[in-house]
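Hey L., structure's done. Input below.
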Amino acid sequence: MNMPFEEIRAGNLGVRIAATADEIEASQRLRYQVFVSEMGAQADATARATGLESDAFDTVADHLLVLDHDRGEGASAVVGTYRLIRRVAAEKMGRFYSADEYDISAMEAFPGEILELGRSCVDADHRTRGTLQLLWQGIAAYVFHHRIGLMFGCASLPGVDLDANAAQLSYLYHHHLAPPELRPRAVAERFVPMDRLAAGSYDAKRALLDLPPLIKGYLRLGGFVGDGAVLDVPFNTTDVSIVVKTDLVTDKYFKHYERKLGTG
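Output:
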């Protein structure tokens, strides 16, 4: 497999794209551990028998991996993963994965390359700031290599209790709603209003602090949310649509990769 970038190392950890079927399977096993065993997602008979969380989109996606080389090499070292789907991959499936939940026509109309992010998870023993930063460095390298201008995908709040997530959903709607020209909207039959609490009636700082680390990471990069949440009952999550213009991602790492590619 042609690697879009060399493995980026930080001590015993590294990040790169999966190069073998065994490494992709290891990412699917990690997804099962996190999404099913830990978060309570539903698993069909095949998933329970194999211990793998997978779907047809895995066959066309690139799988970004964080590897802990203290645990070994290759599949045995996988401790984090992110699924990356570009236009060319989505075309093979006839759609992007998130089109099942959101009208993403605004993303699809974006001039240039776009990237759908999904299935992000990290092994419980490796949920540190350093691991997340390494994942983002990997995404930045991938974005830089493929000249991607816009990233999008679904991110999740735990559980399907709208009252429990009311402050976080309201905060996202009131403070981070995407501009109309870049705004996904939950499909009508699954649309759940996000402005559940009136602006000013909840502690916005507390709501921000209570957001999952992944969503906070998108917001720090200047990311936006779409209109409407979606209850993903099989995954036991409340999903929101995320949109990030990649100039803010690549600016942070641009000079590093420019030097690495010998163009600066």
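The chain has a mean pLDDT of 91. The chain has nine helices and eleven strands.

-- N.
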